[in-house]
Design brief:
The protein has 181 residues and is an alpha+beta fold. Helix content is 35%, strand content 26%. It has six helices and six strands; from the N terminus they run αββααββαββαα. Bound molecules: adenosine-5'-diphosphate and magnesium ion.
């Protein structure tokens, strides 16, 4: 995985596969404390304690097409290479929160990548799921909450090209000056 936005896409998709209809993604960059923290929270089916204890093992997956589950362990590896780690909290029937933290300026920290494309891929591919994307960069803050957009849409699907066009514009202008640009 080349950049953090692709790890975020992968982990958010885990939540959607687990039946979530709300996924909250938060990226917090703080150059003062030299921390980059990413959290992905979903309200999907969750994992029991036994599965959770093994889920960062790259050989654990519930997929049938491939025996190796890699998404979470690859993100953990990226975080560890950048002086951090990845933790998972999960409650069956409630949901899952994945937290990855890194040293912001670590030489091996992956670039943020393109969060505009990550969010649009999630929204276009999962029009019935809501997303709250919060990006904090020192004293700047950007929030995209598709629940607010959905209220205005009535019968129009979230992935209608005119809607995703407006979401794209909002992301691009809102993230100006952020590393996710
Ligand atoms: N947010 C989640 N909610 C419920 N189960 C999850 C979640 N994330 C991961 N899992 C479980 O952990 C397994 C491993 O996930 P992952 O490392 O991303 O590999 P993969 O998605 O390729 O299986 C998944 O197959 C799934 O069973
Ligand atoms: Mg996965």
């Amino acid at each position: 995985m080349e950049d953090i936005s692709l790890h975020i896409l992968d982990v958010a998709e885990n939540g959607i596969k687990a039946g979530a209809d709300l996924v909250k993604i938060t990226v917090e960059e703080n150059t003062q404390t030299d921390r980059l923290v990413v959290t992905i929270e979903d309200n999907g089916r969750g994992m029991d304690a036994d599965f959770l204890a093994r889920v960062l093992d790259p050989f654990v997956t519930t997929r049938t097409t491939r025996k190796v589950g890699l998404g979470l362990s690859l993100f953990q590896q990226s975080a560890q290479e950048a002086g951090g780690d990845l933790t998972i909290a999960s409650t069956p029937g409630v949901g899952t929160t994945v937290t990855a933290f890194m040293s912001y300026r670590h030489i091996d920290r992956k670039p943020m990548g393109n969060m505009v494309e990550t969010m649009l891929t999630l929204i276009e591919g999962n029009p019935d799921c809501d997303f709250v994307y919060t990006h904090i960069s020192n004293d700047k803050r950007y929030v995209l909450d598709t629940r607010e957009i959905r209220c205005e849409l009535e019968e129009i699907p979230m992935n209608h090209p005119e809607v995703t066009g407006l979401i794209r514009d909002n992301l691009v202008s809102g993230l100006q000056g952020f590393s996710a640009e």
